Amino acid sequence: MTIENLNEKIKAYALKNAIAYKGKANSGAVLSGLFNEGLEKSAVKDVMPTIQQIIQEISELSLEEMQKEYDKLEEFTSHRVEREGLPELPDSENGVIMRFSPSPSGPLHLGHAATGMPSSLYVKKYGGKFYLRIEDTNPDNIYEPAYKMIPEQAEWLFGNVYKYYYQSDRIEVYHKFALDLIKKDAAYVCECEAGVFRELAKNKEECPCRNKSVEKNIEDWNKMFDKENGFEEGSAIVRFKTSSEDGGMQNSNPAMRDFPLVRINDTEHPRQGTKYRVWPLMNLSVACDDAEFKLTHIIRAKEHMDNAKRQAMIFKVFDYPLPQTFFLGRYKFTDLEISCSRTKEKIADGKFTGWDDIRLPFIFALKKRGYQAAAFEKMAIERGLSEVDKVISQEDYFQLLSNFNRDLIKDKAIKATFEEDGDLEILMPDSTIKKISSDIDVSKLKDESIVYFEDFGYSAYNESEKRFWFGHK
Ligand SMILES: [Zn+2]
């Protein structure tokens, strides 16, 4: 089979790859593009010299020149046959029920976009339900404004949330779930000090509370609710009783040995006040919800691997069908720390203007710079369901994101001239202000209108500030 316009296609794929990787194209990436165009594996040997020659030629170009060339040649690549999305999920014929479950410790950032997006995309693809549950069962780790921010940001980012809900509205459901576990002799109330239990668990030894009768456990469970005459905060917790089938306290993984499910916390909760003192820990509330909402597939961060095993043990007690679970590696930035608590402090100190400060990797800052939700979709598709952490610099991450974004905005961006000095202001990613003049009529712009300043880059108009926020080149 011959491929039409082969040289143009090679050049287009080489440019595309070079733009994404600081000007260096990789012949393997070009080949994978060509395979999508129908190149036979047997023809690789024949095209390789041409690929290498073209890669060599374009390596002389600046990134801007590459972009201009690529814009001309892009039409030769058939988007239709490029990898169209994420890998297929098994057992998805009848639709899927999935979830994204951030804790309200801060607003959404690009890490959330990466972990939440695959589930959103799968529900778009197969049909079904995409739940967004806010995991707010730890009163000590709640940033109240996040309750309002997360749904707004998720609406923009995913656009297909079937239902939002707060775990703190379901505390009584979790109480019943915990009591059911106790009644099945699969959980017990443990009064051991944390340090004492840890030492016993380390030595694969059972604590004295483990062999209490179900009746005694129910009695102790009731005492957890009684602030006056019952247990004090920290003096009793409910533990899962790892089944003998799973090795009990002998389980080879210490994290699986009688892990905690429920605790007492008298801290006032932002949504529930002092209504509850008995709070589920995440393995209980997550297992309960995943079972009750009948999740079919779960995509979660790799660091939850042990939790997934713990939750599977809870499922087994009730014989609930286990959702298919996939794990995602994270972006590990070499030079960017994403911390809600530290950002919160810096906002309070006036070091950042807010969560949408142009320097921050939070979703609404990026939106105001003209990044489109679909660019995060493309990032997620490119990552696939990889369990491997991706070590990346801030610059490389944003170059990838910007490349995807450019494809999305270049046709709708308003073209304008660019000259140094003038009355128009562009807020730059380092928060300095660039003064320019241009032929653009800002009175005709709406909030977040995207303007392409020739030979400079894409910026989005910020109506309330009457100036542009720089996006990318
Ligand atoms: Zn104990």
Structural key phrases:
single chain; 473 residues; alpha/beta; Rossmann fold; Glutamyl-tRNA Synthetase, domain 2; 4 domains; six-stranded mixed beta sheet; four-stranded antiparallel beta sheet; 17 strands; globular; binds zinc ion
How would you sum up the major sheet? 6 strands, mixed
- What is the radius of gyration? 27 Å
Strand order of the largest sheet: 12-15-16-17-13-14
* End-to-end gap: 38 Å
Query: Approximately how much beta-strand content do the residues carry?
Result: 15-25%
**CATH top level label of the largest domain:** Alpha Beta
Number of separate strands: 17
Dominant shape = globular
Brief rundown of the structure:
This protein is of the alpha/beta class. The protein is built from 15 helices and 17 strands.
Task: Please give a structural write-up.
Helix content is 38%, strand content 17%. By secondary structure, the chain is α/β, with parallel strands linked by helices. It folds into four domains: 6-81, no CATH class; 84-322, Rossmann fold, CATH 3.40.50; 340-409, Glutamyl-tRNA Synthetase, domain 2, CATH 1.10.1160.10; 414-472, Ribosomal Protein L25, Chain P. The strands form five sheets. It has a six-stranded mixed sheet. The radius of gyration is 27 Å and the shape is globular. The chain starts with 5 loop residues before the first helix and ends with a strand. Zinc ion is lined by residues 190-192, 197, 207-209. Zinc ion binds next to loops.
